[in-house]
Structure formats: structure tokens, C-alpha cells
Amino acid sequence: MRKGKNRKKANRGKPMNITEEQLREMIKEELDAFLNEAENAYYEMLAEGETLEEAEYQGRKVTLNKPMKGDVKKSKVYVKNAKGNVVKVNFGDPNMKIKKNIPGRRKSFRARHNCDNPGPKWKARYWSCKAW
């Protein structure tokens, strides 16, 4: 007989020696990892099709046309405006979740913000419409 098979049966149904606090910590770590992965995928999707290049904004090197987690709003992106200056565009409500998978909400948002004609890249509407 194989020992591995019997060992599995012997441990089946026995409670694990984990405190409730340890369990909460384990769940929190797994959830944080999942949310970080989802957030990174979201920002990569927004930057898809944009040319990424380096520029200087207030003495710091920044990547242009790559949306990232915002400090003032939900998201931010550095772009060049019509004059060629690098500007930071903040967009999105940090307290709301995007529910673009619901067709009615997606249609209403896009109609309300005129996403058929989103305007220039240095406006928040362009990036919000791209997210929706």
C-alpha cells in the first residue's frame, strides 16, 4: 500500500490549528494580492494601444500615456498637451467602482459623457471614456 494515500485519509475531517485572527490575516493577504493583480490588469488595459515614452514632470521622470493609481482621484496619467507641455490628468471617483459589465450602465455613462467624441488626451473625459 502507498503511504501517501492513507495519510490523506487520516487527515481528512480534522480541524486545523489556526486562530480566527490568523485566518483573517491569510484571507486579507490573498484578497490584497488578487486586488493588486486586477488593478494592474486594469491599468495595462487602459494603456493598450498608446505609445509609452519618458518625459519630465516637475523635475521627475514619468511615463507618458500610462494610467496609474491616482493620489487625488481614482486614476492619473501624464500626457503632453497641445503646447507640448507634460501635464498630469486626474480622473475617476475614488469612492465608486466601474461597473462597465452591466450594459445599461455602460450605455448611460457613454451617452452622458459623449464618449463617441472623447476629445483630446489631456482631458479627463478622454481617459474616463477609455476606461468605460
What features would you describe in this structure?
The mean pLDDT is 80. The N and C termini lie far apart (58 Å). The chain has helices spanning 3-11, 20-47, 103-112, 124-131; strands at residues 54-57, 60-63, 68-69, 75-80, 86-91. It contains four helices and five strands. Strand 1 (54-57) and strand 2 (60-63) form a beta hairpin. The protein has a domain at 44-131. The radius of gyration is 23 Å and the shape is extended. Strands 3-4-5 form a three-stranded antiparallel β-sheet. Strands 1-2 form a two-stranded antiparallel sheet. With 132 residues, the protein is of the alpha+beta class.
Q: Roughly what fraction of the amino acids lie in strands?
A: 15-25%
Give the overall form.
extended
Averaged pLDDT: 80
Give the strand tally.
5
What's the short version?
With 132 residues, this protein is of the alpha+beta class. The chain has helices at residues 3-11, 20-47, 103-112, 124-131; strands spanning 54-57, 60-63, 68-69, 75-80, 86-91. The protein is 42% helix and 17% strand.
